[in-house]
Amino acid sequence: MDSMLVTGGCGFIGTNFVRYLLKESDFSGRVINVDKLTYAGNPENLSDIEKDFPERYIFTKTDICDQEGMARIFEDYRIDTVCHFAAESHVDRSIVRPDAFIQTNIVGTFNLLELAKANQGRLILFHHISTDEVFGSLGKEGFFTEETPYKPNSPYSASKAASDHLVRAYYKTYGLPITISNCSNNYGPYQFPEKLISLMILNALEGKTLPVYGDGRNIRDWLYVKDHCTAVWTIMKHGKRGETYNIGGKNEMENIGLVEMICDVLDEHQKREDNLPRRELITFVKDRPGHDRRYAIDFTKLTRELAWIPEESLETGIHKTIQWYLDNQEWVSRIKSGEYQSWIEEHYG
Ligand code: NAD
Ligand code: DAU
Q1: Rounded CA gap, 145 and 244, in Å?
Q2: Is residue 39 flagged as an active site residue?
Q3: Are strands 178-183 and 244-247 parallel, antiparallel or unpaired?
Q4: pLDDT digit string (tens) for 73-117?
Q5: Taking Cα atoms as reference points, which of 54, 65, 66, 61 lies closest to residue 30?
Q6: Residue 334, exposed/middle/buried by CB under 10 A (0-12, 13-18, 19+)?
Q7: Is the CB of residue 211 below 6 angstroms from any atom belonging to ligand 2?
Q8: Which residues pair with 211 in a beta bridge?
Q9: Which helix (H) or strand (E) holds 227?
Q10: What domains can be seen in the chain, in order of their start residue?
């Protein structure tokens, strides 16, 4: 793998993956990061990488739906590997305005697959990043395995399911060398403050209310983002072509318990001026339509076949994450004030 196209590298997981690839992994090639820079993309996340790896890191602001632009990138950089993160990723937004989800997640993935097929001679791997939400919702018992039938419930998860099917179909029909990973909820550094954990940390630090949907008893299986990165790289190196791998954290938690935990850890790190516990900021609000009750991942296949296990527990991961947000107040304020977007305007138009 000499020339890897990473799509969506300025988003939350993409940023962590590019940082991991270049700074910590045994990958020795170059990364071409293609990102449209939607509200969720922030190239400042990688400005130190741009300085430290001038030969091995290239960024281009391009939409994955742009056929000509993407064709030039495949050609100019002789792309031999693709790791495809770019997506509209937030469920609540997909409920209000699904259009961009259909475009980027389905049409964008189709466009990349077509280009990968056109460049199949040199293509080593097309790795597609997906989600456990494609499997729908679990009851109190059981886990999602790689054999669980797809039953997506939101426009977001339906668009991701469609893209997974396309990727698999390109393997079956055209022999494209693909792997797919379906991962549970991620958290950690650089997460845009719209997802549960990042939103709760930043609201709690500002003394704002902490909106918990419905009865707060929905369950997610949380994974520290660095563990997702090591899993993806393991699959890319050793995964069997045409296969799907589940990635999870074995960290199931009810939302309300998680938000209380965040409040308590923040109180430990930094007391509020009025000394009141942050738990009093928790407010139950109207439920999300079609809200999936429980996700839980069985990642036995990834452990058995590729010897991957997550390193962080929810407790260690939450401590690290809170410390990161406390240590990176400038990043927080540029995101919250929208200054990062003015910077993008200035640099990329
Ligand atoms: P994110 O929203 O933080 O980042 C998405 C990135 O994609 C942004 O940088 C955005 O600018 C870019 N992008 C969007 N549309 C684009 C387009 N048309 N062309 C080029 N770039 C575009 O998302 P994330 O949380 O980092 O998720 C990354 C991937 O991982 C997604 O495919 C998502 O479905 C998947 N995933 C996320 C989670 C999670 O918990 N966040 C869990 C499992 C899987
Ligand atoms: O499971 C993987 C998926 O996890 C990814 O594919 C998605 O890209 C990612 O956004 C995430 O989806 P969720 O909907 O599970 O994540 P979110 O952080 O939006 O919500 C987590 C849980 O918290 C969910 O039960 C809804 C609830 N919630 C969320 C927000 C933003 C609240 O109670 N209050 C909130 O303000």
Answers
A1: 10
A2: no
A3: parallel
A4: 999 999 999 999 999 999 999 999 999 999 999 999 999 999 999
A5: 54
A6: middle
A7: yes
A8: 283
A9: helix 225-238
A10: 3-187+223-250+289-313 (3.40.50.720)
How far is 174 from 210, CA to CA, in rounded Å? 48
Element (H, E) at 342: helix 339-348
Alpha-carbon dihedral sign for residues 16, 21, 22, 25: positive
| Among candidate residues 174, 169, 133, 171, the one with its CA nearest the CA of residue 154 | 133
Note the pLDDT tens digit of each residue in 9-30. Answer: 999 999 999 999 999 999 999 9
Looking from the CA of residue 186, the nearest atom of ligand 2 is: 4
Residue 196: CB within 6 Å of ligand 2? yes
Question: Does the beta carbon of 91 lie inside 6 Å of ligand 1?
Answer: no
- For ligand 2, say whether the CB of 213 is within 6 Å of any of its atoms: yes
- Ligand 2 atom at shortest distance from the alpha carbon of 295: 1
Task: Calculate how far, in angstroms, residue 56's C-alpha sits from the geometric centre of ligand 2.
Answer: 34
Residue 156 annotated as catalytic: yes
Query: Candidates 38, 84, 90, 91: which one to mutate for ligand 2, based on the most atoms within 8 Å of Cβ?
Result: 91
Asked whether the beta carbons of 247 and 180 are under 8 A apart, the reply is no
Query: What are the DSSP calls for 323-341, one per residue?
Result: HHHHHTHHHHHHHHHTHHH
What's the pLDDT score for residue 348? 84
**Residue nearest to ligand 2 atom 16, measured at CA:** 195
- How many angstroms separate the Cα of 340 from the Cα of each of 44, 60, 294, 320, 327? 8, 17, 35, 24, 18
Distance CA 146, CA 80 (A): 27
Ligand 1: does its nearest atom lie under 6 Å from the Cβ of 86?
yes
pTM over 0.85? The answer is yes
349: pLDDT strictly greater than 80 = no
Residues 156, 185: Cα–Cα separation, whole Å:
14
